[in-house]
Amino acid sequence: MTYTITSILNNSALTAVDTNGSEYVLIGRGISFGKTIDETVDETKIERQFGNANEESKKNYHLLKLIEDIPEEYFELANVIIRYATKKLNIQLNTSAYINMADHINNSIERYYDDIQLNFSLLDEVRAFYPKEYKVAEWIVDFLNAQIDIDLSEDEIGFIAMHLINAGGDDFQQVSQVKKVLELTRLISKQVLELLPDTDVGSLDYSRFLTHLKYFGIRYFGKEQSKRDEVEILLKTDKSVEIDDIINKIEHLLVEYYNKSLDQHEKSYLKLHLNRIIY
């Protein structure tokens, strides 16, 4: 496909039309360097393609504005970051991840120089449920700090990890949904640790409990609390009364925050995991 340049955005981005007259945003290192309008694009330098602008004019208008507002060097950093994340996470990040990452880098650095600190309150939950994304985000923050000679805070790891989770298309892929599930997990786990202060948070059983909470949260917010027949779990333990009391308090908390109760199936599996934690 042959592309003819219609406008130069920066040395690494331009708009061009193909032989059918459809307009695209094309991005690649040095793709615009030394070029002028009406010249042919060097297709070997195309790394990212966005468009068709004729079909998605509103979306591409915002894309063009983003590209114009973001310093060129941040696109280079985003390119390195996306390649690294793709390799380490063994996933194909969606096309918007590149622009979103460059935009996030720009905003993060602007906040840093303006001395504006944003707190990421779900750092522990992201570290527990998405360890691979967390480790990659940790590398990204170290990389940015070294390349730009700044000192982004640990909170930035959480924000970048959320970008990676969303871009990778997890089983509940929207960022807002991920945050809701992580907040619910924190709410329940905090309640459990207050009621069971001797819990070994480093144990395998507690780790399994947190994983259960993640998938419970997906079902809870996804309106998929089990429609299966009730599962009855009989525990031969003198802690049954204590466990039932904890579950009742958890349900009261969920109704208070989300106005939604637990079904019997979810209560049964919570009982199973709580029993393992206690013993």
Characterise the protein shown here.
- This protein starts with a strand and ends with a helix.
- Strand 1 (4-10) and strand 2 form a beta hairpin.
- The protein has ten helices and four strands; from the N terminus they run E-E-E-E-H-H-H-H-H-H-H-H-H-H.
- The protein has helices at residues 57-69, 72-89, 96-113, 123-129, 131-148, 155-168, 175-195, 204-221, 240-258, 264-278; strands at residues 4-10, 13-17, 23-27, 48-51.
- Helix 2 (72-89) crosses helix 3 (96-113), helix 2 (72-89) packs antiparallel against helix 5 and helix 3 (96-113) runs antiparallel to helix 6.
- It folds into three domains: 4-69, Transcription Regulation, Sacy, Chain A; 72-168, PRD domain (PTS-regulatory domain, PRD, Orthogonal Bundle); 175-278, PRD domain (PTS-regulatory domain, PRD).
- Helices cover 58% and strands 8% of the residues.
- The protein is of the alpha+beta class and 279 residues long.
- The longest helix has 21 residues, at 175-195.
